[in-house]
Each structure stands twice: as structure tokens, then as C-alpha cells.
Amino acid sequence: MYAQWPFHLEDCQSKHSPAQWDAFKIPIKLLKQSHPIQPSGLLVLPNELLLEILVHVNSVGQLFLALTCKRLLVVSSMTITIIPSAPKHRAYHLDCSAMLALLRVVQPRDARGRSKKSWAPCCVCYRYRPKMKGYWKGVQKRYPKEMACGILAGHGSIVQSWSEKRSSSYQCPSCWCEERVIKYGHLA
Fold first, then answer.
1. Beta bridge partners of 130
2. Integer CA distances (angstroms), 34 to 37, 88, 155, in order
3. What share of the chain in percent tops pLDDT 70?
4. pTM of the entire structure?
5. Number of C-beta neighbours around residue 60 at 10 A
6. 107 in a domain, yes or no?
7. Do 63 and 135 fall within a single domain?
8. Coil, strand, or helix at residue 107?
9. Where does the F-box domain lie (predicted)?
10. Which residue of 7, 45, 84, 159 is surrounded by the most CB atoms within 10 Å?
């Protein structure tokens, strides 16, 4: 488990809970799929005992157990696990270390299970966003008036920075555009 989780969650809970927390939602499609038998002593326990274990761990432990395998995902769907909610954090533009740590746990992965380098987490909207330059041309087209008057003059350099392999950018180009339009849109 990620060593900083307790700190991140306590920090988020004290500042944002319960308004920005919500139940961990599991898509029905995942619950209906069959799961292969895995050779683990934990997985041969009956559902009642697994539920008892889930009751005695904190929300991060519940989340990690749920994400371990399909069997535990199905069992965890029988309980309510409360975790930081990305949409609720996004709505209030909160800077939250727990949300970012949660994002890092659920990174997009390729077929071999390695993390995809073509996606990066945005610290503003709490989403994984593509790093490909071509994707961001569409975002630029949404703001023709703002582009014409120069409010979004640095868009190209923001896209370039976001698209670099070892980029230190924390804000996706879309959030950068929205921030600039909100801040300077009255000048257009």
C-alpha cells in the first residue's frame, strides 16, 4: 500500500469530508463478468468472512482490496466504501493530495499491465488526459474568440509542455484554457 495514504486521506477528510466524498461505484458490467479461480487463501473464504474483513479496514484498505481481483470487487460491492469523489472535488476546484494519490493508484495501463505514458493526471480536473498534441487541437477550436483576442496566446506552449515525455506540467491544456477564459474572458 502507498505509505502516504493515511496522511492524504486524513487531510482530505478534515478539509473536504463529507461534502466531497462519495461511495465507490462499481459498474454492473464488471460484476457480471466471470472471474477465474485464483490460488489465494483469502479468496477461498466465504463472503461473510470477507465482508467482516472489509468492515475492519479503513476506506483505503477497502478500496485496495476491491481493486485486487474480481472476486474481491464483487464482495466489496456488498458494502459501501466511501472515498474522495473526483467530480465533487472538481466542482469546488480543490487542491487535494488524496485525490491525486487516488488517481495514481488507478493509472491507465496497457495490455501488459504497464502504466501508459501517453496519459497524465491533471491536478485541476482530477482526470487522466491524453498527452498527444493532436488531441488538444480540438480544445483550441472551442475558443475561437478567445484565441483571436490573445487570451489564449500561450496555448501552443502549454500543449508542448503537457505533451513532453517527462513533463512537469500539472494542469492539462483544457483546464488551462478554462482558467484563462474565466480570469480574462471579460477582456474579449
1. 119
2. 10, 32, 46
3. 84
4. 0.61
5. 20
6. no
7. no
8. coil
9. 39-83
10. 84
pLDDT of residue 130: 92
- What is the phi/psi pair of residue 182, to 5°? -65, -45
Domain membership flag for residue 54: yes
Q: Which three cell numbers stand for residue 170?
A: 500539472
Average pLDDT over residues 95-120: 80
Q: Which amino acid is at 16?
A: H
Rounded distance between C-alpha atoms, residue 184 and residue 182, angstroms = 6
Q: For position 78, which CATH number holds? A: 1.20.1280
Domain check: are 81 and 126 in the same one? no
Instruction: Please tell me the distance from the alpha carbon of residue 61 to that of residue 58, in angstroms, as a whole number.
Output: 5
How many residues are there in the chain?
Answer: 188
Q: What is the pLDDT of residues 37-69, one digit of tens each?
A: 667 777 888 889 999 998 898 877 888 888 888
Q: Specify if 61 maps to a domain.
A: yes
